Amino acid sequence: MYRYRRPLLSAFRSVISGSGAPRGQASDRVAGFVRASAACQLATVSSGCVTARRTLHVTTQLHNVKETPRHTEEEVSAFTKFIEAMGFTGPLKYNRWKIRIAALRMYTCCAERIDYDEFFEKCTLPDTLNSWFLVTQLHVWMCLVRMRQEGRAGKYMCHYIVHSMWEDVEQRCKVMGIDATHRKEGLKAMTEIFYAALFGYDVGILADDSVLAAALWGSLFNYRCVDPKQLELMVEYVRKQMQYVDALDGEDLMLTGEVKWRPLVEENAQSILKVVTPTYNDAGL
C-alpha cells in the first residue's frame, strides 16, 4: 500500500485548534472547465457521428428526486450579525466542539471509506497522491453541498471539513518525505485545483449531464479521459450519490458526521437505498 494512503494521525488535534488553508487563484482551471463544458454541449448536438454510441442521460427531474424540508433563513439578532461581520462566529444551534468532531468524522468518511483501487481501475487513474486527492475532493464537495443546506451551523461545519482535508493532505505529504519547499508549492497548487473543482461541480450538479461530465472531465480526469463510458459512469455515480446524501437527516449529520457511500458500480443505480439512521448518545457523540 502506498504511503500516502496511511490514516490520519493528527487531524483531530488540528480540528480543535487549527485554521484552514488559504484559497488560491484558479482562473486557468475555471477557464478550462468553461471550454470543456462548451465542448460537451457541442458534442451533444453534433450529428456527424458514424458509429452508434450511448448518450448521456439529460434530465431535470433528478434535481428534485426527493422533496425534503430545508432550513429557512435563520433569524439572527443584530448583535450576532455584528460579531460575525467582525469575523467571529455567533451562537449556533449545536455545540461548536460537537460540530468540529462531526466534521472530522465526515471528512474521514470521504478519505477512508472509499475504495480507491476501484476508482483508479474504473477511471484508469494512476495510483498517486494527486489521484487520491482528486477522488477525495469529489466526495468532500458532495458533503459540502449537503451541509450547506443546514444553515449557519452547516456552513460552520463545512469550514472544518475543508480544514481537516488540508491537514490530512499535509500529513500525507510529510509521510511521503516531501520537503517543506515542494510541499508548500504542492499545497498551493492543490488549493487552486480544489476551489476550481468546487466551481465546476456546483455548476454541473445544477445543469444537465453534459455540463457535469465536462466538470468531471476537467477536475477528476484532468482533461485526459478518452473513454466516454468512464465519464458516463462517474456522472451516474455523482447523481445517485447526491440523491442518497440529500436523503440523510440533517440533524444526524450534524451530530455524527456519518456518511456511508453507495458503491461505484450498482445494478440498479436509480433506486435509492433505505437510509440507516445513525446512533449517538445524549452528548451527541
Short description:
With 285 residues, the chain is mainly α. 58% of the residues lie in helices and 0% in strands.
Could you explain the architecture of this structure?
The chain has about 280 residues and is an all-alpha fold. It is built from eleven helices and no strands. α1 (about 10-15) packs across α7, α2 crosses α9 (about 210-220) and α6 (about 130-145) packs antiparallel against α7 (about 150-175). It is globular, with a radius of gyration of 20 Å. The chain starts with 10 loop residues before the first helix and ends in a 29-residue tail after the last helix. The model is unreliable at about 20-25 and about 40-70 (pLDDT under 50).
Low-confidence stretches: 18-26, 42-69
Question: How would you sum up the global shape?
Answer: globular
Distance from N terminus to C terminus (CA atoms, Å) equals 31 Å
Rg, alpha carbons: 20 Å
SS-based class: mainly alpha
Strand content: under 5%
User: What order do the helices and strands follow?
Assistant: HHHHHHHHHHH
Please count the beta strands (DSSP E, at least 2 residues each). 0
Q: Give the helix tally.
A: 11
